[in-house]
Amino acid sequence: IRKGKMETALHYIMSYIGGFLGVYTILLRGGNFGSAQTGNLIYLATGWFGGSWQEMVIRIIALIIFIISMIAAYLLPKYVKGDMRRICIWVEITGIVLAGFLPEDMNNILALYPIFAITAFQWGVFAGARGYSSATTFSTNNLKQMVLSIADYIQTKDAKQKEKAGFYGITLMSFQIGVLGGFFAVNEWQVAGIWSCLIPLGLALTLVEVDVARKTQAKVVAHRTCSAPDR
After folding, report:
1. Residue 188 to residue 193: CA distance in whole angstroms
2. What average pLDDT does the segment 159-176 reach?
3. What is the pLDDT of residue 3?
4. Which residues contact 164 (CB under 8 A, 6 or more apart)?
5. Residue 48 binned pLDDT confidence (cut-offs 50, 70, 90)
6. Are 35 and 194 in contact (CB under 8 A)?
7. What is the spatial distance between Cα 179 and Cα 91, in angstroms, rounded to a whole number?
8. Integer Cα distance of 136 and 157 in angstroms
């Protein structure tokens, strides 16, 4: 697979995972969307007038976990030499394995802590492909970009807008396929259904390892070329 196609394929796989985790949290954790903080922030704003202090503390900690995970995704590349995509996928594997052991009857927000962490981290690391900014954990901006690109293409017939619309459209489709995958996993295996998400994560990790190996080989060849004596 060429570099550009591999990057795009990886983006679509991570979008699938975003959809899977989104529906998983909604179906099993009281309708809470574990891939963002919008609902949590709304409750924090209104909960002071009717929520219990214990629930407020739990939600504040959830917000802190999400923020720390975003900061980690932003700062780690400055201090860690490893491939951030590889690190992110291993973080997600760890969080998903943990989430599958959490009881279904525990506090819904507490149960979402691992999901808040891994989706925030994924949002920071897998933030687009082919020069397009695109979240893989939620769909609002992807939908907006697809619709606007289609509108621009209808008006201008610009092939670049058609390509852009296709990219965001496939991203949305990948997300929704992930939603279906998560829906069937929850219906079949309940909480443990999240472990089936390890399959696309394994595929994503394989693509990353192939890409890393290719880059390493290219550096070796370049080094040998530069260090070869002139004849």
Report:
1. 7
2. 98
3. 67
4. 132, 145, 149
5. confident
6. no
7. 21
8. 28
Q: Can you give the pTM of this predicted structure?
A: 0.92
Which of 179, 190, 201 has the alpha carbon at shortest distance from 35?
179
Nearest partner of 73 among 93, 94, 87, 63, judged by Cα: 87
